[in-house]
Write a structure and sequence with these properties.
Elements: E1 4-5, H1 22-28, E2 30-35, E3 44-53, E4 59-64, E5 71-76, E6 89-92, E7 99-104, E8 106-114, H2 118-123, E9 134-136, H3 143-150, H4 158-171, E10 178-179, H5 180-194, H6 201-208, H7 212-222, H8 227-244, H9 251-257, H10 263-274, H11 278-284
Antiparallel strand pairs: 1-10, 2-3, 3-8, 4-7, 5-6, 5-8, 6-9
Length: 285
Amino acid sequence: MSARTNPPSPQRTASYAGILRPDELSRRVQVRRWPASERVAPWVENHWSLRWDLPDGASYDSETLPHPTCSLTVERGTHPRPELAGEEVAITGVVTRRFRVDIRGRGRVVGMRFRPGGLAALTGHSARDWTDRTVPAAGVVSPEVSAALGALDLDGDDTAYESGMTAVEAAFPSDRDVDERYARVLRVVADMLEDRTFYSVAQVEERHHVSTRTLQRDFLHYIGVGPKWVLARYRMHDVVSALDDGYDGPLTELAMRHGFYDQAHFTRDFTTLVGVTPSRYRERR
């Protein structure tokens, strides 16, 4: 049985990077984020909401690069998802591909973004069960949590959203400890996110004194993907953010700055994930 430890001080274990063409999104969709309370902060990164009201016939193709995080959401006014069988409260696991949503009409989404591994640590489920899937929240979180989120007034203002998410937080058990394996996953992910000199999983294993087998096992259970995938996504987020911020130097230099020493490999990975080549993405900016 794994050792238990006190909840760690909140670390930044996820970023807001990865939204493709963020300026275009902000003109059409109101995006808001606010912090989770100390009560759930060891497992939850933040809360967020999306609102949009587009004219008839107007639409916007929103694209986001994947993150190693799961979300618990309630949504109304969006396109029905057959996999939810009419349920509004859903769990979305780690999405390993570019996430595309056709935004049109009127929609409201409010969600809780878990830290990498946070949902698995809270529920005891394996995150592999949700990788590349959206499933009804019932059966994953308690009925009290689902009910609290489902009762949220999505037509209310920001105050209604905040009070509603406070009620959702209160529905989670208050006697949870942090499993040492999950605490180690958080430490590793935080390092991957913050230390731009990490380009290989071997560097991570050496710093954290953890074996390849152990790290792979823990990442697959708690996050749903392996450590190599997480590290590669964070470095690609850095590349896209640099381009969105106006980087206009040589793309070979940008690739090397973020650990891609083979230009063909970099271009192939970028195109597979983003949908266009780095040069084309910069032109479209």
